[in-house]
């Protein structure tokens, strides 16, 4: 009998296809059971701790929602039990074909440094809040938009002496050091353990087992600032080894061995899913990232082609961009930060932003695509983002000149939610950031220009300085948004 030591992880692959994954101690065959039907599981990988299994089930929609229970079985024995909580069965909700969708969005699910965990007694309070809500009004989909784990602890792990030595060496030594079998072994163990430690938390584990999820990574799922460092550092052997193992475990745990929706199986992991006439476009903004580029032209073209293909079947579109597209400009900070020795550690964070000097041209091309005529087919258009440890809500639309030209109105809503675990900016840092940032208001003149700005949340600040996650209730011609914090909820409504 195979004992489950991690999971289950419940995923969404398309409108009717659900995936179910677990990690077991032994390699004995497994089967998934939903109602009275058995589905075979396939072993995708052997990890340092066990064997990773995936099963799939095609579940057609019915008029009303379905509450389905599932369990895992060995061919010749009862369901294996989890060593964590002794649970042998789980359940999830499949939305009815004509019912409003209830979606949760979360990001920034961890801490930069182990010492931060000791400062907050209720690290996972928002996951507990989601768990309580799930019991009364089940979520149909969980979207996680980046930093599902924090690999920032890699340089400090006491169980990785070879990796520790590399991190402590000079920048010149880092570039010259070759990767070694010991470093690869340490990295594989560390990434697996990070998923165990983070996703093994009681409320997180319960949600990942009972809400179908789709995920896209960001830098902390690899290492802080990945893609925003100078090329010599990015391309050195050990840094590439870090990406290699981060990518393997991202595809295993976050994508659950996903194949069909992926637009490319080699250079990036962008994908599109059509679920109940909602087109979800998950952009991989990390695999190809450089200081002067986020995604290459072929990558963008694949996304454009897939949106054109699936768009006629969708009512609304959700674009997952880990870093917000509509957000204050850090240009003034970017100009001066290189002259402040202590502040240079923030350079990679500044370079991450779409409005960083190296990404402005690519951002402009993206915005022109977002405001192009084919996007008129969608009733509601959302950009879902996290990363910045605040909540926010903004608009992107054509500039006044184009509106006067008689073009139909086309508006995107930028929705920002983070972090569900990580802290908001400190009280001492908040005034400094606000001093350097502009309002987020941007007016690009001329043909093909645009206007974007942040709106006030609940008639207060434009940015919500509280830990939060987002609830989206999607109806036929409107959507209700609620930023869930530990103290209160902030609500907005978007109409067609």
TrEMBL record:
It holds the Pfam family PhoD_2. It comes from the Bacteria. Residues 125-338, 347-430 form the PhoD-like phosphatase domain. This is Alkaline phosphatase family protein.
């Amino acid at each position: 009998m195979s004992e489950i030591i991690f999971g289950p992880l419940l995923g969404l692959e398309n409108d009717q296809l659900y995936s179910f994954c677990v990690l077991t101690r032994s390699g004995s065959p497994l089967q998934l059971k939903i109602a009275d039907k058995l589905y075979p599981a396939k072993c995708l990988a052997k990890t340092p701790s066990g064997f990773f299994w995936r099963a799939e089930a095609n579940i057609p929609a019915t008029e009303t929602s379905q509450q389905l229970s599932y369990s895992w079985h060995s061919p010749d024995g009862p369901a294996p039990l989890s060593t964590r909580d002794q649970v042998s069965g789980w359940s999830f909700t499949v939305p009815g074909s004509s019912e409003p969708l209830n979606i949760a969005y979360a990001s920034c699910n961890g801490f930069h440094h182990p010492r931060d965990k000791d400062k907050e007694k209720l690290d996972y309070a928002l996951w507990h809040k989601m768990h309580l809500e799930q019991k009364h009004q089940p979520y149909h989909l969980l979207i996680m938009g980046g930093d599902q784990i924090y690999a920032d602890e890699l340089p400090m792990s006491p169980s990785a002496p070879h990796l520790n030595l590399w991190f402590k060496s000079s920048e010149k030594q880092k570039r010259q050091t070759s990767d070694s079998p010991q470093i690869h072994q340490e990295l594989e163990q560390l990434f697996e353990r990070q998923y165990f430690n983070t996703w093994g938390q009681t409320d997180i584990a319960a949600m990942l087992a009972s809400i179908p999820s789709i995920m896209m990574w960001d830098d902390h799922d690899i290492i802080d600032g990945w893609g925003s460092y100078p090329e010599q550092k990015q391309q050195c052997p050990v840094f590439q080894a870090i990406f290699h193992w981060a990518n393997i475990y991202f595809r295993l745990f976050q994508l659950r061995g996903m194949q069909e929706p992926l637009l490319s199986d080699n250079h990036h992991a962008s994908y599109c899913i059509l679920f109940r006439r909602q087109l979800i476009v998950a952009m991989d903004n990390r695999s190809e990232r450089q200081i002067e580029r986020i995604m290459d032209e072929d990558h963008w073209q694949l996304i454009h082609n897939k949106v054109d293909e699936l768009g006629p079947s969708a009512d609304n579109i959700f674009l997952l961009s880990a870093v917000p597209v509509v957000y204050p400009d850090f240009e003034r900070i970017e100009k001066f930060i290189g002259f402040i020795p202590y502040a240079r550690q923030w350079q990679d964070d500044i370079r991450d932003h779409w409005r960083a000097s190296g990404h402005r041209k690519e951002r402009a091309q993206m915005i022109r695509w977002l405001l192009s005529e084919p996007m008129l087919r969608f009733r509601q258009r959302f950009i879902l983002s996290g990363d910045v440890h605040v909540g926010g809500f903004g608009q992107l639309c054509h500039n006044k000149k184009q509106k006067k030209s008689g073009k139909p109105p086309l508006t995107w809503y930028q929705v920002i939610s983070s972090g569900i675990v990580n802290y908001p900016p400190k009280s001492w840092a908040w005034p400094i950031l606000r001093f350097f940032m502009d309002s987020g208001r941007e007016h690009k003149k001329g043909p093909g220009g645009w206007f974007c700005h942040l709106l006030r949340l609940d008639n207060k600040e434009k940015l919500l300085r509280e830990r939060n996650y987002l609830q989206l209730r999607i109806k036929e011609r409107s959507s209700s948004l609620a930023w869930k914090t530990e103290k209160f909820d902030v609500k907005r409504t978007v109409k067609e």
